[in-house]
Amino acid sequence: MEYCTKAHEVFTEKKDLVKLAKVNSFFAFIYAQLNDPQRAIKYYKIALGFYEKKNDKAGMIKGLNNLGNAYFTLSKYDSSQYYFQKSQVIFKDYDDPILKAFVMSNLGKLFLVKNNLRNQKTICWRLKIF
Q1: Is a pLDDT exceeding 80 seen at residue 5?
Q2: Rounded distance between C-alpha atoms, residue 29 and residue 27, angstroms
Q3: pLDDT tens per residue across span 80-104
Q4: How far, CA to CA in Å, does 42 sit from each of 26, 103, 110, 112?
Q5: Rounded distance, CA 99 to CA 104, Å?
Q6: pLDDT number for residue 9
Q7: How far apart are CA 65 and CA 83, in angstroms?
Q8: 104: which residues sit within 8 A by CB, 6+ positions away?
Q9: What separation in angstroms does the CA of 71 have from each of 4, 74, 80?
Q10: Which of 1, 68, 70, 115 has its CA 20 to 30 A from that of 32?
């Protein structure tokens, strides 16, 4: 954590928004691993804000996906779905099939938990699984 804090100070001084986003994402990842999803959400949102300021599409998609996963961990499925689906909107302007597959598989997992089989089949169809 000490190195991340120092990196945060350096990137803040340099006003490097993308690297600040990455450091905040790493803080969030650490808190997620420590089973503190509330704190992880706080840092994922900060990171997302930096990615949005830079219009970094990949960063925005990853940030939204991470937020969806954090809310999923808390069993806040509507919030989780909101962030996963918000990331789908960005795909219209950004083509990365691997990133898209991550988001779609997370949506599929969410619909499985919510027992929404119709949406699961739609997800599989979009990924061309069936």
Answers
A1: no
A2: 5
A3: 999 999 998 888 778 888 888 888 8
A4: 12, 20, 21, 27
A5: 9
A6: 66
A7: 6
A8: 123, 126, 127
A9: 24, 5, 5
A10: 115
CB 49 within 8 A of CB 63: no
**pTM of the predicted protein model:** 0.81
**To which H or E segment does residue 85 belong?**
helix 77-90
pLDDT band for position 105 (cuts 50, 70, 90): confident
39: amino acid identity, one letter: R
Amino acid at 115: N
Q: How far is CA 116 from CA 27, 107, 109, in A?
A: 33, 11, 10
Which one-letter amino acid corresponds to residue 16? D
| Tokens read off for 79 | 């919030």
Q: Which two tokens stand for residue 101?
A: 């597959």
**Residue 126: half-sphere exposure toward Cβ, Cα within 13 Å:** 16
Distance separating alpha carbons of residues 29 and 99, to the nearest angstrom: 18
Please say whether the dihedral angle defined by the alpha carbons of residues 36, 38, 41 and 46, taken in this order, is positive or negative. negative
For helices 97-113 and 117-126, angle between their N-to-C axes, nearest 10 degrees = 170
Cα distance between residue 116 and residue 5, in whole Å: 42
